[in-house]
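Bench log. Compound arrived from synthesis this morning; before running ITC I wanted a structural hypothesis for how flavin-adenine dinucleotide sits in the protein. Inputs:
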Amino acid sequence: MTLIKVAPPLDQEVDLTKTYDAVIVGSGAAGGMAAHVLTELGLKVLLLEAGKKFSLPEINAELRSMQWPYDHPRRGDFPPGNHALSFNEYQIRKPPYAKGSAFRHVYSYVGGWGGSDYVKNILVDEKEHPYTGTKYAWVRARLLGGKTNIWGRLALRLSDYDFKGKTHDGYGEDWPISYADIAPYYDKVDTYLGISGHKENLPHLPDSLFQRPVKLNIAEVQLRQKLAGMGRVLTPYRAGVTTDGVKNKYRNHCMGRGACNRRPGGCDIHAAFDSPTGLIYPAMDTGNLTLRTNSTCHEVLVDKNTGKARGIGFVDSVTKKSLEAKAKVVIVAASTLESARLLLLSKSPQHPNGIGNSSGHVGHNFCEHVMGPGITGLVKEQVGKSHTLDDGRPGGFYVPRFRNLTDKQPGFIRGYGFEGGSGDEIFPSSADAPGFGAAYKKHVRDYAGAYISMGAFGEVLPRYENYMDLDPVVKDAWGIPVLRFHYEFGDNEKKMAEDMAVSAKEMFEEAGIEVIGVDREVLTEGWSIHELGTARMGSDPKTSVLNQFQQSHDVKNLFVVDGSSHVSASCQNPTWTIMALCWRSCEHLGDEFRKGNL
Ligand SMILES: Cc1cc2nc3c(=O)[nH]c(=O)nc-3n(C[C@H](O)[C@H](O)[C@H](O)COP(=O)(O)OP(=O)(O)OC[C@H]3O[C@@H](n4cnc5c(N)ncnc54)[C@H](O)[C@@H]3O)c2cc1C
Ligand code: SF4
């Protein structure tokens, strides 16, 4: 079923003899937002995306948000010959993980996350896209819209506890902006794309301009009330989902249906934000955006006389033919790790260490979120109660950071938050119980909605020695050198993870929830899919790559508008901040462009 009746805009003819005002690399949250803001400002923009384009009916057929497991021949699983990497494979082996695999196609762990058939054409095949170095669970989506097609939608703001982290606890660097600088742009993103949530007035998790919140169920309300007594907050999932609707003919408002909460997969009525329907199609409707998919970019081209960027070198992803696009401004938005790779690949006599890399910081100061510890409990009062629809909502709840705000923890700095949920799921945990027959069925039904669980996401500190560079030998299927990881969690992350398990247990016990299991194991580096920091912003060109407008210190017509610019990771999910920052930078870019300063 589809409720979207509107055809997407027709592609404009790609004219590679022409010099565009701006060329954007990548069409995810960052590239899509750059396309939206710049085309509204009247710039003529070329958007290059390495992956393929699904038409609207094609992507809806891929996502199948309303499909029940029994409607699928393998209950949502991959076809034979496909394999999703497991935690053990990431832990025991070293990348490239698909090397020597007997499977025809190998995907990241997200492919094994309860519904792999829905992401097999969205995730990259690790056989074509290897990487090397230290262990890392790298999740990539190469298609129009990138990872926004399947993101989890938790949409949070950062605060001055994040932007001014060094001032607060002395570690790392402050960002060159404060909350007041970005707040108006968070407001613009909220209004343009829609976000659901509930106001809590917390200084460390600022409220958005919320639409109707996701409803908490009884067990979640019970936990919220008990946590309030501990001075902690449980708030409805702040979802990058329009619940009341936005002015956008390609999107519908959330109807609380489907399998939103049961697998990685998008929303086939596009109530959940995705870059194509939220940003790119409306940008195409301005007549100012030309889109070229299947365009794998491998070099920012440089003018020999001025050292400025003059365009992009790319190969057609299907024919492998080498091509060039010319533009007055180059905007890199290929996602944190791919953007760093592209900058490092762009070596020239003017920029021998890679473009924009006179500081030597490109690829360094990598940061993200550490996850793994979490808890599952049983809310006994809910056993045998009538059932509720808890899969058909964009999320459950969020417990914001409560550590190292006014207190000082002995073992670690910074903090973590919990994502969680309770209620009836399509695959109820109670089905794991032993037994058979009528008694077993009754048990499964009675206990189906009585479980509650939550898992933590903690801030990983940026460290110069955590970095990625280019592998001198290994290349991808297009002959482009791949990234090599030099990265591992440090002591702060490990101590923080120990505390996550302790505090989770403490909260459930306080709420009178029977603890069924506590996870203490830390998941592999990269698992959070929140990679950040490889081209950080700053005021000092010696220790940072970009200024506060995500503009290269070295090359004034080069901008890097994704999470690579983030100075620290915060523990809040990054996508809403990526888009707010990008909006701010592109307005600045537009001003400078008009003044002839680029
Ligand atoms: C399962 C899942 C759950 C998530 N949950 C959340 C969440 O709850 N909250 C949150 O904030 N974030 C979440 N994220 C992360 C979120 O998706 C990313 O932060 C966001 O998509 C980043 O946007 P981006 O534009 O930087 O990168 P992407 O969305 O990855 O887009 C980058 C684009 O660039 C293209 N590209 C890459 N290299 C090249 C090249 N050389 N040439 C041309 N194009 C190129 C890619 O194909 C891709 O389309 C989740 C991600 C996943 C996969
Ligand atoms: S619950 Fe809402 S956001 Fe999720 S798939 Fe359904 S309509 Fe889309």
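What the model suggests: The first strand starts at residue 19 and ends at 25. DSSP finds twelve helices and 18 strands in the chain.
ITC booked for Thursday regardless.
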